[in-house]
Amino acid sequence: MNPQDILRYVDSLHREKNIDTEIVFSAIEAALQTAAKRQYGEEANITVQLNRENGRISAIHNGEELGDDQIGRIGAQTAKQVIIQKVKEAERDTLMNEYREQVGQIVAGIIGRADGGVATVNLGNVEAILPRSEQIPGESLHAGERVRAVVFEVKAAGNRVRVVLSRTRPQLVQALFEQEIPEIAEEVISIKSISREPGYRSKVAVSSVDTQIDPIAVCVGYRGSRIKAVREELAGEHIDVVRWSDDPEVMIPNALQPAAVEQVLLCDMIGRAIVLVQEDQLSLAIGRRGQNVRLASKLCGWDIEIMTGGELEEQIERAVTGFSQIEGITDEIAQSLVEQGYLSYDDLSVIEPDLFMEMSGLSEEAVDRIVDTAETKAEEAEVAAAEERRNRKEKERLMREAEEAGIAEPASETAAEPETAAEPETAAEPETAAEPETAAEPETPTEMDATNASEASSELPHPEPIEEETPDAEAPESDSSTPKTS
User: Fold this and answer.
1) Spatial CA neighbour of 146 closest among 98, 110, 101
2) pTM (2 decimals)?
3) Tens digits of per-residue pLDDT, 254-286?
4) Which among 2, 31, 168, 337 would be 20 to 30 A from 216, CA to CA?
């Protein structure tokens, strides 16, 4: 090999492939040493060195230096193949290091193919993939379009680099805000938290280091120009910009906007925030299918439960009465549990034994027995609630069939229908009877929504969808794990 040719080859790889010259020199040395061992035997003690300055190769075999003619005859073709392989691996490693540093950052590329749900995106030096699961629901991608996404995953696939992109991650929203709003890039305004349901809605909490600057107005822009640009990139996704606060009692009402909040009660031991609202604000606070309260909960880091003042009083009364019926729990202990935010058998079944022992002064055996009892009652209530839902669905099906057949439903039966809301309570606690007031409450639609509010917030972060069109269909479930009064 001509020393000058070697130097030119190394320099070319460094400039064109962005590969470090030392990696190429080391690859050439390893290739020549491998080829030499194939000629002189695998057990031969051969050392090959390549001068970085003049490109000259020196090789020592069993303590004797080989001449240039001997080196030139050492498996030149084999050495070339090994060098090519090493260069490919070095190029792959360089690309992997480059894109691993960009994980969570936004990149732009041209869509190559968009068939079968998976889109390929040409990023220039690598072809990335955008899986269907990482695309915004409802959006349609076409070949030749320019698209922006965040780097989600980078891994090796043989001699190639597999880069996976995502358009569903909250990091994409943050990156778009940073591109469209210079004040964020300049750190005058900072994004504190983001919660997102891709394709539907996002909540962004922002704050400003300058009290004279309104971070919400800056992010929205003149006539909404800045936020509009972000929404267009996200296929029309709705974005709420709220003001950040370190105080949960301030932050939680901000996160629940546009609903008006009356009071926030924090239960630190279980990370729950009970939010009281007026009945006319209940459905707005919950949002369609519980979306508003879910996003607010993720944004704040609290398990938010929406309810009215009347519903809270009823839950407290049922909880105190129900807890007091468990052997070993006195009225004082029941009241302490309620004050800490434990309002159902489900809550009590997951209480920390050490905290319960410290709070109640009970022994470890007594605490374990109480927790086991609460867990059993919670399971029974869940079974009863599931049975009630099946019965309700069956009744609705029969009513639809009757309507299709032209058979009118008696008015008395229709009026008595809400009384079924008391059935899960009777099934969960056979020894107690449901209060007449509780059974009559579902007659008011807003109160039915309040029950749904409890259900939506108690199952965060993955709640069961709440159908606003038929609120009474889910009403029994939220009370299924709550202790009942006698």
Assistant:
1) 110
2) 0.64
3) 999 889 999 998 888 788 899 999 999 999 999
4) 168
